[in-house]
Design a protein that fits this description.
heterotrimer, A alpha/beta, B alpha/beta, C alpha/beta, B: alpha/beta, Rossmann fold, 6-stranded mixed beta sheet, 4-stranded antiparallel beta sheet, 9 helices, 36% helix, C: alpha/beta, abc type-2 transporter like fold, 2 domains, 5-stranded mixed beta sheet, 5 strands, 63% helix
Chain lengths: 249, 247, 363
């Protein structure tokens, strides 16, 4: 097992009487591309918000690069790059103004780490004067990723970066993530699309706040079934019988 | 058996100034058919669906939906179709049954009709005992299934589904497609868009739009064979990769 | 420091890119000033005058005929003492001249110490009342001058004893504008980031709440100073407000008041998470009290006693009071020290609360 970058240990998070995350434990190794796969409302976004220190867990402990998510939250904010579920850039600022601003938040300039973002940013550079709000879905996503990377984070947290993007752009996005491997950045990425699982080193299947399985995509496919079949079997097993659980967003 | 077309369009074109969003598309969809309407972001899918639903007027071309002319009878179209999309489906602060009463009322069903249909449909869905739950307390997967049921409440001839399964779990997705196949077998035409290429393989026929034009239209099996590939995903990507425009 | 500059640059870009809002923000003060200034200072004409006299006499008839020949006034007949209030209330007359019993004997000096004439005016339009009073007094004085008796006229203004005139509105407009521009605009600016989701990214960065607050304040502060300048220039040169008091005082207290208003806006946006709610709160909770309790529309002295204490916690009341003293009464800075210190304390308090309430998490 490689040295861990992210450790979640027995994390539980409730909103009122709704349990968003139920005793979640997982480890992401340094430099690993780890996929968190599950439907809407599974608790993926909550998990990201705990890791980005935007929320506090009710139980359990979360550690990012040796820093505690509760006690060392200001330190964590310096070393993570975060791309929330919805497009979170300034629509009225241009492409380069956005990049410049996000670099300045960390006290730097886009040029400082340009080689790392170059493969991604160069694709949208011809449009650098265009307002972010007028970019296409795929280009917005590239800009958001550039902004999340501009301060050379040690850990990259991507919450459903490919939702609502067409198949071609999605595939390109995964190529870009693969290209980041050489920099040793640990990447945790969530997605509702089963077909993207194969692009990850390891994946966790999550449903209704519980981790159902953690393994490499190859091992899951080794069972002789598709990932989707496995997921459906695990959901049925977990539910036992038909019941409706309250959940939150 | 004579093929009865529910949707039939010829040379449908929509221009926004100098930009041609939909560029002369023609196709037919038969009664009871599940028709997959695919295309990359910005290919013109949304514009085309808006015209078919009577929400937008075509610049040129002609067509009928559920027996109504898309240019002159756009208001009649709305009465004969159902529509469901991922983003907006049900009012969250109303209960399931209140949502159904509202939609039924909009389509002019009597309250007796609404009640009997709602009871039949919700019992079929095994959701009858939860009819008084607020929609916001219901899990996403269930919500999508309910939204589909509600869109079908007034017995439309054709139902438009715009990415109905975005973000739902695989089990629910499977159940959702079972529901789609069921209403199709009962004679309702299903017109569906999706980003999941495996779902495209569930359709009777699919069309793939690129830059405002329909570049491929056939059964999934025939398309896979024609392109000499293994899956719809590869068919789609080999077509969409040639796209010039990007929204 | 560099980071802060970038942040301020970004905030300024937001404002500059939204040209329509920017124009409204710059235009409103000018429109309000001109509206209040000129709509109210129009010259009076055709004020109807009624006369109330216990007895007719030659001298009284002479005065009445002078008034009816003046193009500013129309003589509207004689009324009884009991009807005075009635005709004024029904706007049948804008002014009533009341002659005393024994008018001729008083004016000829045979009953010393008595007032001979009283003018009762409808003050609901203060500007009209003020001019009418001046002109009527003039006419009466002229008529009485032959008798050698002065100071025999007493005038009363009903309904609006403060006699606000056109330029009396200027301090009120200032008090309102800064709340409008600073509080309303800033209250939206943070909430907008929450709604757009950009706040989430800001929080997951080393940026501290104090930076966000300062960066949001600076551009609106500059904008408000610009507004202050336009209003003062308009007041001085277009409306002719005296502004004989301390100019430094005017600027100092305005700056503190602007900061206070910015603080209010930030506090609102820190505690809400929807633009709509932020707008409602700053609209209802900030604007209404200013209109009602600051002395802008009605004098605070005229409020019912239950409401009077509220005026003390409305910052605009202190600001408007101080600005009246400086701009109109021409007092020095030392005369508004009380108001100045109260606004300073309020500004510091509001900013501290806003900073404390700023949540650097999402829950």
């Amino acid at each position: 097992m490689m040295e861990p970058s992210i450790i979640l240990n027995g994390i539980t998070k409730r909103y009122g009487d709704v349990t968003a995350l139920n005793d979640v434990s997982l480890e992401v190794g340094k430099g690993e591309l780890f996929g968190l796969i599950g439907p809407d409302g599974a608790g993926k976004t909550t998990l990201f918000r705990l890791l980005t220190t935007l929320m506090l867990p009710d139980e359990g402990k979360a550690v990012v690069e040796g820093l505690d998510c509760v006690d060392d939250y200001l330190e964590i904010r310096k070393i993570v790059g975060y791309m929330p579920g919805r497009f979170s850039l300034y629509q009225d600022l241009s492409v380069e103004e956005n990049l410049e601003f996000f670099a300045s938040l960390f006290g730097g300039k886009p040029e400082d780490n340009y080689e790392m973002i170059a493969p991604i940013y160069s694709q949208i550079e011809p449009f650098r004067k265009r307002r972010a709000g007028r970019l296409s879905g795929g280009m917005k996503q590239k800009l958001a990723l550039s902004c999340a990377l501009v301060h050379r984070p040690k850990v990259l947290l991507l919450d459903e970066p490919t939702t609502g993007v067409d198949a071609v752009s999605r595939s390109e996005f995964w190529d870009m993530l693969a290209g980041l491997r050489k920099y040793g950045i640990s990447i945790l990425v969530s997605t509702p699309y089963m077909d993207e699982a194969g692009r990850c080193d390891r994946i966790a299947l999550i449903n209704e706040g519980k981790i159902l399985k953690i393994d490499t995509p190859a091992n899951i496919a080794d069972d002789g079934t598709t990932l989707e079949e496995t997921f459906i079997r695990l959901i049925k097993h977990e539910k036992g019988k038909h019941n409706i659980r309250k959940e939150s967003h | 058996m004579k093929r009865e077309n529910i949707i039939s369009v010829r040379n449908l074109t929509k221009k926004f100034g100098a930009f041609t969003a939909v560029d002369g598309i023609s196709f037919d969809v038969a009664k009871g058919e599940i028709f997959g309407f695919l295309g990359a972001n910005g290919a013109g899918k949304t514009t085309a669906i808006r015209i078919l639903c009577g929400l937008s007027k075509a610049t040129s071309g002609s067509g009928t939906v559920a027996g109504c002319d898309i240019i002159s009878q756009s208001e009649d179209i709305k009465r004969n179709i159902g529509y469901m999309c991922q983003k907006f489906s049900l009012y969250e602060d109303l209960t399931v049954i209140e949502n159904m009463e509202l939609y039924g009322g909009i389509y002019g069903l009597s309250s007796k009709e609404i009640n009997s249909r709602a009871e039949r449909m919700l019992k079929e869905l095994e959701f009858w005992e939860h009819r008084n739950d607020l929609v916001k307390s219901i899990p996403t997967g269930w919500r999508q299934k309910l939204a589909f049921t509600v869109a079908n409440l007034h017995g439309p001839k054709v139902i438009f589904l715009d990415e109905p399964t975005g973000g739902v779990d695989p089990l629910t997705r499977r159940q959702f497609w079972d529901m789609i196949r069921k209403i199709a077998s009962e004679g309702t035409t299903v017109f569906v868009t999706t980003h999941y290429m495996d779902e495209a393989e569930h359709c009777d026929r699919v069309s793939i739009m690129v830059d405002g034009k329909i570049m491929a239209l056939d059964t999934p099996a025939a398309l896979i064979e024609k392109f000499g590939v293994k899956s719809m995903d590869e068919v789609f990507r080999s077509l969409a990769r040639n796209a010039v425009r990007n929204e | 420091m560099n980071r802060l500059l970038y942040f301020i640059k970004k905030e300024s870009l937001h404002i500059l890119r939204d040209v329509r809002t920017l124009l409204v923000v710059i235009g409103i003060p000018i429109v309000l000033m001109l509206l209040f200034g000129f709509a109210i200072s129009t010259d009076i004409n055709n004020v109807s005058v009624a006369v109330c006299t216990p007895e007719r006499s030659a001298s009284i008839d002479r005065i009445v005929s002078r008034i009816s020949h003046n193009e500013m006034f129309t003589f509207n007949g004689y009324v009884d003492t009991k009807e005075i209030d009635e005709v004024l209330r029904r706007s049948e007359a804008g002014a009533v001249i009341v002659f005393a019993q024994d008018f001729d004997r008083i004016t000829s000096g045979r009953i010393p110490g008595e007032k001979a004439v009283q003018i009762v005016l409808d003050g609901s339009n203060p500007n009209v009342a003020a001019s009418a009073e001046a002109f009527l007094t003039g006419i009466l004085n002229q008529s009485l001058s032959g008798t050698g008796q002065m100071g025999m006229i007493e005038s009363h203004i009903l309904y609006n004893p403060q006699m606000k005139s056109a330029y009396n509105f200027v301090p009120g407009i200032l008090g309102l504008i800064f709340i409008l521009v600073c509080a309303l605009m800033t209250s939206i600016s943070i909430v907008r980031e929450k709604e757009m989701g950009t706040m989430e990214v800001l929080l997951v960065s080393p940026v501290r709440p104090i930076w966000i607050i300062v960066a949001k304040m600076v551009p609106y502060f500059v904008l408000s100073c610009l507004n202050l300048m336009t209003i003062l220039l308009l007041a001085k040169f277009a409306l002719g407000v005296p502004m004989t008091g301390s100019l430094l005082g005017i600027i100092l207290i305005s700056i503190v008041y602007i900061i206070l208003a910015l603080g209010f806006g930030l506090l609102v946006s820190v505690v809400t998470d929807k633009q709509m709610i932020a707008l409602l709160i700053s609209g209802m909770l900030l604007m209404l009290p200013i209109m009602m309790f600051s002395g802008m529309l009605f004098p605070t002295e005229n409020l019912p006693w239950v409401l009077k204490p509220f005026t003390y916690i409305v910052p605009a009341r202190w600001y408007i009071d101080a600005m009246r003293k400086l701009m109109i009464e021409g007092l020095a800075f030392k005369d508004i020290l009380l108001e100045f210190s109260i606004i300073c304390v309020m500004a510091i308090g509001i900013l501290r609360v806003a900073l404390m309430k700023f949540n650097d998490r999402l829950e």
